[in-house]
Amino acid sequence: MAKGNVHIVVERCKACGFCVEFCPTKVLALSSVFNSKGYHPPHVVNPEKCSGCDLCGMYCPDFAIYGTRVVPVRGEK
Ligand code: SF4
Ligand code: SF4
After folding, report:
1. Which of 20, 59, 66 is nearest to 43 (CA)?
2. Please, are residues 67 and 52 in contact by the beta-carbon 8 Å criterion?
3. Is the pTM of this model over 0.85?
4. What is the spatial distance between Cα 55 and Cα 23, in angstroms, rounded to a whole number?
5. What are the sequence ranges of the domains in the chain?
């Protein structure tokens, strides 16, 4: 599976949970901390499972999260 990273813009999040629900590999969970608006943003619980597919970014209504694929270095698998 392609490797990726997920980036969370904590202060934009309104804790709808879409990213947690729709991540196909269950990378995310809502955290117990609050952002300055009083919402619980997601945090990464399974970073090694992130493919960088950006489904979380497509579902987020607040542009608070996005996934990026890691481009493999030539010669690596
Ligand atoms: S989809 Fe966006 S607004 Fe909803 S919990 Fe995830 S990061 Fe927050
Ligand atoms: S980029 Fe894809 S695999 Fe990574 S957290 Fe977002 S939905 Fe999950």
Report:
1. 20
2. yes
3. yes
4. 6
5. 4-69
| Assigned token pair, 1 | 């599976």
- Multiple choice CATH, 4-69, 3.40.50.11540, 3.30.70.20, 3.40.630.20, 3.20.20.70: 3.30.70.20
> Which residue's CA is the nearest one to ligand 1's atom 1?
60
Strand partners, 5: 68
Whose CA is closest to atom 2 on ligand 2?
53
Nearest CA to ligand 1 atom 8: 13
Evaluate whether 66 touches 54 at the Cβ level (below 8 Å).
Answer: yes
Tell me the CA–centroid distance for residue 40 and ligand 1, in Å.
9
pLDDT tens, position by position, 27-77: 999 999 999 999 999 999 999 999 999 999 999 999 999 999 998 788 766
Place of tokens 């809502």: 30
